[in-house]
UniProtKB/TrEMBL annotation:
Gene Ontology molecular function: beta-galactosidase activity
Glycoside hydrolase family 42 N-terminal domain location: 43-400
Organism this protein belongs to: Roseateles paludis
Protein name: beta-galactosidase
InterPro entries the UniProt entry points to: Beta_galactosidase_Trimer, Class_I_gatase-like, GH, Glyco_hydro_42, Glyco_hydro_42_N
Amino acid sequence: MKTHALLAQLLLAVTCLQSAQAEPADNRPDWPGAGQLFVGTNYQPYDRTREQIERDIARMKDAGMKVVRFGDLAWDAFEPQEGRFDFALTDWLMDRMQAAGLKVLLDIPGQPAPVWMHHRYPGVSIVTQQGTRLDPAERYMDNVADPDYRRLVHRLAERMLQRYAKHPALFAVGYNNEAGNGMVSYSEADRLRFIAWLKRKYGSLDALNTAWATQRWSRRINAWDEVRLPYIDGPGPYERYLDMRRFWSDATIAVLRDLDAVRRRFAPDKPAISNLWDSAWRKGFDMLATYRDYVSYGAMGFYPGEPLGAAFEATMMRAGMTAPIWFNEFTAGGPGYYGTRGRSRMWAHFGLLLGAQAVLPWTWHSHHGGEEQALFGLIDHDDRPSWKLAEFATIARDFAQLEKLGFPRLQQPQVAIAYAFDNIIATNLPKEGMSNTVRPYVNPGYMKQAHAAYEPLFKGNVDVAVIHLGAEDLSRYKLVIVPGMYLLDETSRKRLRAFVEAGGTVVMTAQSAKVDDHNQWFHTPLPGGLTDVFGLRTNEFFGAGDLQMRLENGEVAKAAGAASVEVLEPATAEVLARFVNVEGQPPALTVNRFGKGRAIYLATVAQAPLLAPLYERLISELNIETGPRTPEGVSARTVQRRRYYVNTTAEPKDVPIDGTQRGLLSGQTWTGTLKLPGFGAELLQSQ
């Protein structure tokens, strides 16, 4: 091994150790691959013959794959009837994987629940808000709050991990594929569980009535039995709707905590790497406030549409961890059923740039039946390898080279963006429950604003963490951005206050801190609980179209369609910028010194053109690390003094570089300009 490669691995090992020490020790088992990258696949062996499986394993090995994820979506393959377990195929498969040198990410397949469970335990089935009991017609139509479901999934996890925890092929454990997806339920048992949840949360009917604003519109609750589950599709008051969504979030989290307790009992040396879906539109759950209870490494299904949104979602799934991201499901080609050549390789390198460690394409073989029968895998319907298998073999070769050169990229972001499940719910109320008076103000919702706040940082190649303010140590960051946090809970407000007081810099945009923990507007001046921190108050707002904001240095930033502008009333805050095309040129941007830090407020919803010049100034003042400057469509980072570039477009790009540098992926030498082909990636080392 060359000296510089050995040094790189030693440095990375030290970084990994420091990262592990930074996280709770009881949920960070031994590092599953310091200085290692993994290309693998998702595998459904239950519709394959043993002859096909043998051939599949040989092809995986030949392609350079290291890890295979299976078990997901297949509860009845392990337990075909209640209490009758069948592990014969899995025993054989684990042994074959071990013989081939392949590691296994074994999913506990808690969803979907088997048909036999729905038949024997009706409480596992979903009941609609109209009172109709639904058959499990598609995946994830399971009531995870049902006690029988929880008892049986716990037993499944115990039986699987008792059997495989010590198997040499076992690499990691996952829980309930796409946990967070699914439907809420309205059975009488669910209503009673909701009441029990409310009693624990509020303690008394008086507290509940206050939290739910029942003094309005004749909604007072005089007995616990009068409580009903609010409708998921509306209509319904905002306060109780939020609590209903919190209740179902807690039900999902309780299952994940329970399953992780089983892992800690039987396989404490194996990490939990689960394909979670906290932002699933039908239900979702509060992962960012609770992930340390059941997550070792952030993991997700990575099916990118465009780079900015893909990067934000992956960053959100990494949460506040310094550990790498796992793409437990990974795009196998791109848009459409068959994909575009070179696109998967580009996204794999893009993932490494974001801090990924593994890509597991969905899926290995094309499915002949079921819900995804037209989805093409790496092996076609006629059992022949497609060109995609060769592309993932190329990715495996790239990864084998890069894991010796400082990958996976373990990040230490200096910038954080706030996110909260509660806020998503508060700004995405049921359509039938949102009045016309509030609709213009809470829309656009949080995610649109979050992307806008992230965009200048993404284009500037700045590492970012997406976090729940109330669940993280904010002292790790130099800059915290709070875009459109309509509901900013009390704990988050306190931590934000302490962060600024201790010397941090915060940027908040309009529509933030308007409602309290119960989704009611603050009785105090706005932004609620933070007017002294920001040195201003704001209450009124007006609609606006295109805006021009002039900064202190004379620079003019322009943005189209602001939707709403808040009227800022500075007290101790100084005006940094004004709207020059609005009557009276009202304040657009203010800064307030508070304690040792400063709090900056933007009077509009988060918009990239207005935030970009502010970020540029703050990045310079705070000495925030950035990657190399790149043309539009090219992302880049510095990895152990080497420059790593990924062209996310199909068009060739010319990237200015300093001097003469050698491309470690292409083997070419470049002087002055790196010519990146469409979907191309390169790691440059100075000559």
